[in-house]
């Protein structure tokens, strides 16, 4: 299925139809801003701008204007476009399947070379009544457009007799807005019938009509969702409509309707052969037959299988319900020509708030009937048809006069009862099927309806109310019946809408009527379906899988576990639902408690929508596959929060009855500053001397006089040690944070100030992760955030045992169940069962080894404030080659990773044995599970260039370990082996500009010489250049210069989390000038130095080059030489213009002699320099594999 092509067609068709209907309205004097008056020429004809309208057309125009006065111009045009789109797609479906009365093509031609439909060539044999005189006249005039229009409208009128829900009778006002210019290859009809883009095979299934309608609404849906606002009532059906994947529909129906029938008629098990998604219990369970006996009804007849979809959309689920019902009827020996009507009149029930979707649902089920009985339309025309499908109508436009009119002269009580009936459907388009069932006097209202139709205007002025009720009351009675009924089978894909998107009216309604499931519209629908289902009925749903795990849905889980039986559930892979970024599950329930297990299929490991049905079928065929499980729902009650963790081993579940981590660890959630931009910094942003390291308690913090203190705040997935990059403003015991007041409420915004737990040794863990869980050792000296919660211990042994357990495969096994959405709240972590081996010493020893390895890894990179020197210098060999140093470094990293892997696997084995989970959990650790980096030539060379840049600026020194300068007084004498630049400015110039001695590539080569010696300098520079991706024919120096000019700042900003400390001053896209400046050495003279010593000099050089090129162009050299000079001059002219403008900016800023305060942070300080600086690319997130220096 080429859904992309369908979407493209439907979206472009919408725009085309709206435009053409607008043009059609303009022709009859209607525009968004004005309405022209008619000029009457006779009693039968009026004119608008010279266009004649008949009396009928004039009436149609007046009807359109009335609707526009009520709903607005745009709404009426939009509705007309949508109506004609759906009519055309319906006609195309009927045409392809031979369901139309015409022998010739209505929209297309059997001759693929012809662009015009066959019916305009053979209009007198179309199969429905036409005015032969008019047809012949149009043929004679070769007025193909008018002929097509006439025949089409007559066909719609003809179809109204059997498909009145979609096609109106002759004289419908939308006839007047039928667009012109529909034919032709590029016209709407031409594209609709294009068999290359949309082959006839896709039109063989009626679901295509619903698909196209959903795609037609794509732009409106996207607009509503992207606005990120509460949905208005009219937006709800658009924003929440999702077409259910076919295989999920089949699964839900087979396991609900199919299961319900087979429980009473096991003799019909032959039906299972065609049900490829039916999840049957693989083995009988004890006295299950006895438990099922009261549920079984051997006398159950197919006509009693009332199947309800309360959010039916365009009827996708109803269509497959029809297929299964047909099998059941046929199996019971019913005559095949009787079955379609029996299904439509006895079995299929549905509601929706979308009028258009309801019309398409009606069309779909009738077309399905036609598939089984090609004479079905004739039967409808002869005998009529009553469908139990309705779009919910509301009573918002009815007033007290209308209510009084309906109540009639029947007394006060009837007036009250009528008012209650009417009030029940106020805002019904917002509440939909969630409206509560209530008793009402159906006989009275039906009697009043007959009276109104017979005599609508009893009193003067009642005519308007009579017309309203004659149209609306039949619809209200129908929907009331559907809402009040109980059903043995309910199958639905309910709307998904979180509370953040609910308008106030809907939110209030849910709080009042569905208080336990108000978190989302889908969960309220699930509860509503419980109420509508008959005892022992079967229910099938497709919903987000969050209800299985998240705390907000615990009341729903309790209700399901208490009152129903989960018969089956399929959990899809996280991103497997193509039409929405929502993690999905499909499940079926029995509305009552029986002691049976349910069948569960976990597709989480199979990526891609296409893999889901394949693996689901495989699980049905082979119950022994590793991702299919049988579980009794009662066992979920053992799990904290009643989580639906069906994949947990029964022994693992029983361990929840024993001790848990909460008995070993004292936890605290951590601080919320309420303004992280103001109170948090990356440690490299502020002056190093202003950070208080090694603090043991709050008193020491206050006495230190420091402003900034190390701060733990979650971070990337990393185990054992690390992710300590932030500092918090806790000067004077956090005075600034404690006094951070919300100006609107006057309340303190921050909370959880750590108290006595601040600066204590412990372990830390993230509350949210993009992958697996990882806990880390936190030495004393840290405060901690709500996103970096901490655990504390009575003694060191408990700390190491708990940390070891949390980082084992056993904890991962439990946490995948306790926090499958990767939201690691403390109560989830503390719920992990804690079986501590008697011998702690091996665990403590292994844990300490893992911490040491992770700490060494962390400190080898610039991200650590305990970084000493670059590993290529640490692992230098006697050869003086960078390549050999990297080889030694790589060998060291391999050993470290191997040692960590063995240690983690040993810890896994110890705890797996203690928990008795050897059959469920493997001790093996994959290489990609290790959270310390491996050596990487490209990344490590890039980090070496970063370290070199640090030495150029004086942040680091070849003569001292660790930081040499990060604020304070700069001492040039600390840099003897390799000098730091005197003025804190390093120009970035591509090679060949005549200033090689002063640019960064030259300085870097000098750094390599100082660090590794001059003997192997050429080899070292070549090796480094190749590591950076040197191109063929490119010099090593040029490759290094290109990296610094094009990539260094980007990589630096990424590594430093979008808070770069080496700032890139850039003139702009033409790259006339660029230089780097170290933020901690910036002072009020820096800008004037850049301008006076670098930009001005660069301007002079470029002007000299321009003069030389002008002489070449004016000279008597070859044409080719002059042509090359002209191209160079054009480029150089752009550079000069750019640099002159930049020079002006620099001068204005330099004159301000701007000073910066590092405590303000990089973002604020870079912002003060404005357009002088290149912007750091957006930070993509802390990925340890990329975060290399």
Automatic annotation (TrEMBL):
One of its GO terms (molecular function) is nucleic acid binding. Pfam families: Eco57I (PF07669). NCBIfam families: BREX_1_MTaseX. Keywords: Methyltransferase, S-adenosyl-L-methionine, Transferase. One of its GO terms (biological process) is methylation. It comes from the Bacteria. PANTHER family: DNA METHYLTRANSFERASE A, DNA METHYLTRANSFERASE YEEA-RELATED. It catalyses: a 2'-deoxyadenosine in DNA + S-adenosyl-L-methionine = an N(6)-methyl-2'-deoxyadenosine in DNA + S-adenosyl-L-homocysteine + H(+). Its EC number is 2.1.1.72. Residues 346-576 form the Type II methyltransferase M.TaqI-like domain. This is site-specific DNA-methyltransferase (adenine-specific).
